[in-house]
Specification:
It is a single chain. This protein is mainly alpha-helical. The chain has nine helices and three strands, in the order αααβββαααααα. Strands 1-2-3 form a three-stranded antiparallel β-sheet. Helix 7 crosses helix 8. The longest helix is centred in the C-terminal third of the chain and has 34 residues. The radius of gyration is 24 Å and the shape is elongated.
């Protein structure tokens, strides 16, 4: 009897550890769908306990939420198909993708050139004074091309502010239409990489993000066969 109880306790511990380490995306969706929490409140979801009839999940504020398992399980061997089925229900209910993006893809080749060019443009055009004598940029480079420096000084507001507004919109779109859809935890390091990367380079980040999604979709299809 004691051996059986010990085995069940070990199985329960393995399930909790596995869910927290490999399936936090599912836990986030459980809180958002079943407990109606926001992406912000659910972002650090942590499975605290599981029984045959419920999951106890902590929100980002460490508030416990009890998610019923219906009907209750009769053995731990039922846990995997049950949590998978619950996650599938959440994906549909939330209008999410069943592909979770868990990595950032750095720009390479032509995209890397574009990223650096955008970043340097932000820095150079962040203020008009950069194009006047006395600035590091002018004294080290632009003094050799004064007409170009004067041109940049004139167009600085027309370059910098539209760029900030346009890329700011794209970064917001990335957060709302890509990261949330693919359950990237809000304000996580990965979330910031994609949002800030998009703010710097714009459309290139969308292309790389969509490439990751396609790669993961192919993996899922192969796993079915």
């Amino acid at each position: 009897m004691a051996d059986q109880a010990s085995k069940e306790a070990a199985t329960k511990t393995r399930i909790i550890t596995h869910m927290n380490s490999d399936h936090q995306d599912s836990l986030i969706r459980y809180l958002q769908h079943y407990a109606q929490l926001s992406s912000f409140s659910a972002r650090n979801a942590h499975l605290a306990n599981i029984t045959f009839d419920s999951l106890t999940i902590l929100s980002s504020r460490r508030t416990p939420y009890t998610i019923p398992i219906k009907p209750p399980m009769t053995a731990w061997s039922e846990a995997r198909p049950r949590v998978v089925a619950m996650d599938a229900e959440c994906v549909v209910g939330l209008g999410r993708s069943n592909v979770t993006v868990k990595r950032y893809k750095e720009p390479r080749g032509f995209m890397a050139v574009g990223f650096v060019a955008s970043l340097l443009t932000y820095i150079a055009f962040s203020r008009r004074a950069n194009f006047l004598a006395g600035s590091i940029l002018y004294d080290s480079l632009l003094k050799y091309v004064p007409l170009f420096a004067n041109f940049c000084w004139m167009v600085q507001p027309l370059v910098f502010y539209p760029m900030v507004i346009g890329h700011g919109f794209e970064a917001t779109w990335m957060a709302r239409r890509r990261l949330e859809k693919h359950t990237v935890p809000m304000l996580s390091m990965l979330w910031w990489k994609w949002v800030l990367g998009t703010f710097v380079e714009g459309v290139g980040s969308f292309k790389r993000f969509d490439e990751i999604v396609r790669e993961e979709e192919v993996k899922k299809e192969k796993a079915k066969h």
